[in-house]
Amino acid sequence: MPRAALARMGSVDTNDETIRELRRLVEVIDDTVVQLERVRRRAQEIEQRRLAGDRYRVIVEAEERPLIVESLSEVLDRLSVAAGAFRRAEAVALAREGWTHERIGQFFGVTRQRIGSLIGRENWR
Questions:
Q1: How many angstroms separate the most distant Cα atoms in the chain?
Q2: Sign of the four-CA dihedral 93, 96, 100, 101
Q3: What is the distance in angstroms between the CA of the first residue and the CA of the last residue of the chain?
Q4: C-alpha closest to that of 17 among 91, 98, 81
């Protein structure tokens, strides 16, 4: 039997933690795209105002909240949390399927000790 077919054998719970976290990550990515488009438009507006001769202090005083840097920080925070939750769920799933902490660490580019602290022994057995 081909290796790919062997890898697909078994029933799949389409609502498992990894799938839930992946779906959540995709939602955050979609929201991020919308938010970054707003940030891009605001950045272009600031550039246009500056090129038209406005002083930075006038531009900044007129800027609405959240500021560009505030929006970017929020986006990065949300992406980091969602990506971390997905990474943890994926690591747990790989451990349940027999991967060692060492192998998972190699896959993610971190140490086996980091994987151990990421998934915790009681969370996946």
A1: 70
A2: positive
A3: 29
A4: 91
- Residues whose CB falls within 8 Å of the CB of residue 63, separated by 6 or more in sequence, listed in order: 42, 46
Residue 101, phi then psi, degrees to nearest 5: -60, -35
63 in helix, strand or coil?
A: coil
Assign 120 a pLDDT band (cuts: 50, 70, 90).
confident
Rounded Cα gap, residues 46 and 55, in angstroms: 10
The structure's pTM equals: 0.79
Domain ranges of the chain: 16-123
Indicate the range of 22-26, 71-75, 121-125 predicted with least confidence: 121-125
Among the listed residues 116, 124, 34, 12, the one whose alpha carbon sits nearest the alpha carbon of residue 78? 34
